[in-house]
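Good morning C.,

I know you're traveling, so I'll keep this short. The sequence:
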Amino acid sequence: MGKIIAKSCCNCGCDCSFEKKVVVEYLYLDLQTCKRCIETDSVLDEVMLVLTPALELAGFNVEYKKIEIKTADMAIQHQFVSSPTIRVNGQDICKSVAENSCGCCSEISSTDVECRVFEYNGKTYEVPPKEMLAEGILQIVFGSTDKGCSSDKYELPENLKNFFDGKNTKSGCCCEGNCC
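The tokens, ready to paste straight into the viewer:
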């Protein structure tokens, strides 16, 4: 698949090296019911079909992961802040989190849930345009090395806490909250 190129990372004479690697992660709440997650998944797949060969040609090893955030514990483990989220090498391609009401996820959890919207070129989208995803991925790969790290301790957003609580206690469902 991808070619891995090791280069000296400094001139110290040590045996240190680095791998040119791109890890794209798609984190989401639901790919069965949520139109926003399903359509974003489809758009991201199309973008990755185009970008992966180009990145591999440039010497990168590309890894593309899809991660369904099924529980509050998983959300905490992945420091998940909003659905859907696309990260490259651990960095969210969006500079900020904007959300609006998501009927699908609200229905899944029987509570009001807001999910991510994507802001691009002065417009807001529930499903990001291909151009936005390609630009965001390439900007992180070839742009700044800032990982967007924060010294703030991660806390599960109230919105996601409500989603998981609602999903786990959903009444009138024969699966006792294990559906979806």
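Safe travels,
E.
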